[in-house]
Hints:
- The chain is mainly α.
- The chain folds into 2 domains: 2-61, no CATH class; 75-137, no CATH class.
- Helices cover 70% and strands 4% of the residues.
- Helix 1 packs across helix 2 and helix 2 packs across helix 3 (43-58).
- It comes from Larkinella humicola.
Amino acid sequence: MIIAVINLKKTVTAYHRLNTHQPDFTANLQQALTEVVGKLPALGWLVGEVAVLRYALLGPWLKPEVKPDQSAYTLYRESGVTALGITLLVVGGVETLVIHLLYGQHAERGKETILDIVRYYAGHDLNHLAQIEAILKG
């Protein structure tokens, strides 16, 4: 157990040293682990799994991985990708509502609107009410 803690401390120290030169989490972790435990066949898999967990659990709170002389660029804040996505969702919703719900094509009845569907359900319910009344009078 003591050896594992010592190796973990060496790995963290090596990672921080490497991170000052190149801010790439996966590459630095791979190199730090290689320095401490040597080159192992499963090391790439382990680093990949740790990276997936890191980005999945901490992604929104992580600082961008950029060199000191660079600036971070995010699609979310500095482009129209978010507005484009919202626009596509709104247009898709309107298209679904207008084309498929307000004016649909039924296999047997042909073209029908939501009003037609409401009438079918209302007529069906009235039919059931009439059947219940007949049973009660029965």
